[in-house]
Design a protein that fits this description.
This protein has 15 helices and 16 strands. By secondary structure, it is an alpha/beta fold. The N and C termini lie far apart (44 Å).
Length: 383
């Protein structure tokens, strides 16, 4: 039994039970032993999963084109970017390298905020971004920024799926929360009345029906996060890239066990009570939740599509066809380079499994002409 397992068991013994969000918070973010905070490598070949910036620099360079147009649309004195959950700083490096190379006039007025709670990741990001040292500011939370003070772009890539979430099930047409307790010193799930009315209220504005025994995940933190983002933004755009769906598809009766999964050494399982602190725990993002919560703080939906369609709309095909070399890919052969870029946008790969939600707040008079629509459409299946 590892130390984190015993810590969690001690919490359960003291309280009698934990809701799943409390269990996840300890499993993923315990200051010393948590999955994301222990300092162990988690992303890449030696880790448990890949993210788009690790596949090819074309991802960050395409986002750089989007960001520079956003800056020109907002027309603020400073060109701001906030990246939530920047990990090693690879995406930030690709974006800033591209802006510095292609738009030095905008780069001169750029400021890049990284909100990252993992001190090990901050250290790695600092090393990766040493060429942009004067542009970077690390924040522990968004609360360090004043309300209505930010102008620019907020981006998150595979962040929202990592927020600890609640789990619940429908029994006799009532929502019952799933808790974690101990029986003979082993983790056991039980159901009881929800610990907060916010769980039942979550579905109030959804026209949905649920089957007996259907399980769901509810991310209260996703709502809090997007509302916090909207509260600090004066004008600009919010880009959220993650895997997920709109509510009708996400909570379809076909998903009787919900969408949560665990990831350990690139293998998926549904056993959160093993390898505690050594495996990721995630669920699909409810993009309808982000839309309705965002609208309450002035964030209007500009575009909801797949990652693949978003990257095509913002020029990744032209970038690939140009054959331009990119930082960090000099060891790629031409075919390998093209194959890596295709992984980012093709259906059946990352391009279709990940969605992109773009929201805007007071973006300026050029909003209607802001989003480019490529004649090539591959974003089938977005509901």
């Amino acid at each position: 039994m590892n130390s984190l397992t015993e810590i969690i068991k001690s919490e359960i013994r003291a309280k009698g039970r934990l809701n799943f969000e409390e269990f996840m918070e300890l499993a993923l973010y315990h200051p010393e032993y948590g999955y994301y905070t222990s300092g162990t490598e988690r992303i890449g070949r030696e880790g448990d999963f890949y993210t788009s910036p690790f596949v090819h620099a074309a991802f960050g360079r395409t986002l750089a084109g989007f960001i520079t147009k956003a800056w020109e649309t907002v027309k603020a004195p400073q060109n701001g970017v906030i990246e939530m959950g920047a990990s090693k700083g690879l995406l930030a490096s690709d974006i800033l390298d591209s802006v510095k190379e292609d738009r030095p006039d905008l780069y001169d007025r750029a400021e890049y905020f990284i909100v990252e709670r993992n001190p090990h990741s901050c250290q790695q990001a600092g090393q990766a971004l040493k060429n942009h040292e004067g542009k970077i500011r690390f924040l522990d939370t968004l609360d360090e920024l004043n309300r209505n003070s930010f102008h620019g772009v907020v981006i998150s890539n595979e962040l929202v799926d990592s927020f600890p979430f609640r789990r619940a099930t429908w029994k006799e047409e009532r929502l019952r929360e799933i808790y974690v307790t101990l029986v003979e010193d082993k983790f056991v799930e039980i159901t009881a009345d929800p610990s907060t009315d916010r769980l039942t209220q979550y579905f109030d504005s959804y026209d949905l029906s649920f089957n007996e025994g259907q399980q769901v995940e509810i991310s209260l933190r996703a709502k809090e996060w997007i509302q916090n983002v909207g509260s600090i933004m004066n004008s600009g755009f919010v880009l959220t890239i993650d895997y997920g769906h709109l509510a009708p598809e996400l909570f379809s009766p076909e998903r009787m066990r919900g969408t949560y999964k665990c990831m350990h050494k690139h293998q998926i399982n549904e056993t959160p009570y093993v390898n505690i602190g050594e495996q990721d725990i995630t669920c699909h993002v409810d993009f309808s939740n982000l839309m309705r919560a965002g609208s309450s703080v002035g964030l209007d939906v500009v575009k909801y599509t797949t990652q693949g369609q978003f990257l095509i709309d913002w020029g990744i095909l032209e970038m690939m066809e140009s054959g331009a070399d990119m930082p960090g890919t000099s060891d790629y052969g031409e075919e390998k380079k093209r194959a890596a870029i295709k992984t980012l946008f093709l259906p059946g790969q990352m391009g279709h499994s990940f969605k992109a939600l773009l929201q805007g707040k007071n973006p300026g008079p050029a909003k209607e002409d802001f989003y480019p629509e490529s004649p090539l459409k591959i974003s089938f299946g977005v509901t």
